[in-house]
Amino acid sequence: MFAPPSPSMPRALPAEHRVKLLQNAREVSFPQGARLFEEGGHADRFWVIRTGTIELDMHVPGRRAAVIERLGHNELVGWSWLYSPHVWHLGAEAVTPVRAYEFDAGAVHALSKEEPALGRDLSQWVGSVVSHRLHAARVRLLDLYGPYGAGSGV
């Protein structure tokens, strides 16, 4: 389905796992302004960006959504599919036209059960992304709503 291990797949996964994962992907594109998902919605897929930029945002009552992070080439969009209750913790919007690999969570869960080493590496990769995103969200929210400069030294 796809050529050799793509440079668009994260290097956090060994080459043989990238190849197996890509066999479960489909290529998709989103126009500028398209919403990939909304905070609180059912998380049943994820993407790896090939080209373009996506912003992750968080609902803030009484205000416009706060942009938490901008994602680009080779970055994972969506991690909530891996952890119960499989609900998006943030929203995502294409700020430029985007091309990406899209993965069905059910198919990837099944592949992970068939190949435990792949499942372990995938979980470690996604876990590191979650850790990074939580830190980024904290810093961004402190920058937006904390005392001046509160997030800069964190």
UniProtKB/TrEMBL annotation:
For this protein, the record's InterPro entries field holds: cNMP-bd_dom, cNMP-bd_dom_sf, Env_Response_Regulators, RmlC-like_jellyroll
- Superkingdom is Bacteria
Protein name per its UniProtKB record: Cyclic nucleotide-binding domain-containing protein
Pfam families in the record: cNMP_binding
Q: Where is the signal peptide?
A: none
Which intervals hold domain Cyclic nucleotide-binding? Answer: 9-78
